[in-house]
């Protein structure tokens, strides 16, 4: 009986496709929910730093002024926290693993010149508005002080 079962299984396997793949001779097939590596849509990043603060491995860093986002893929454990926490949803977990290397190299993504220029202009405008508001507040304070001093003056 056991021989019959074995022969049946052998015969079935002989005519069916192998369950293994021919990787690396053929591209690897990743499952839909594979935790491969993190990618960023850098122009959508607002530089809030949420991803850097929640990363348990401290593998991310950002420079808001230069518009860069840097990851050391060799330290990333693909936990997906940064993807979950990003308020702009510009991080995604993509299939495909980090290629092995002898050095722990970092990868830096930089925003496009157009976006960097628009952000610099926005910062300039905000700084200008803040300076104007400060100047107006100081002028108001000085006017109030002058009025109070005037009221305190003895009549005559
Ligand atoms: S997936 Fe996890 S370990 Fe990797 S960068 Fe994001 S938070 Fe850090
Ligand atoms: S959490 Fe998202 S928006 Fe904020 S710095 Fe990271 S990638 Fe950019």
Describe this structure in words.
The protein is α+β, with helices and mostly antiparallel strands. It folds into 2 domains: 29-111, Alpha-Beta Plaits (2-Layer Sandwich); 112-146. The chain has helices spanning 2-15, 50-54, 81-85, 113-152, and strands at 37-40, 60-63, 68-72, 91-94, 106-110. The strands form 2 sheets. Strands 2-3-5 form a 3-stranded antiparallel β-sheet, with no helix packed on it. A two-stranded antiparallel sheet has the order 1-4. Strand 2 (60-63) and strand 3 (68-72) form a beta hairpin. The longest helix has 40 residues, at 113-152. The radius of gyration is 31 Å and the shape is rod-shaped. The model has no long low-confidence stretch (mean pLDDT 91). The site of one iron/sulfur cluster has 15 residues, from helix 3.
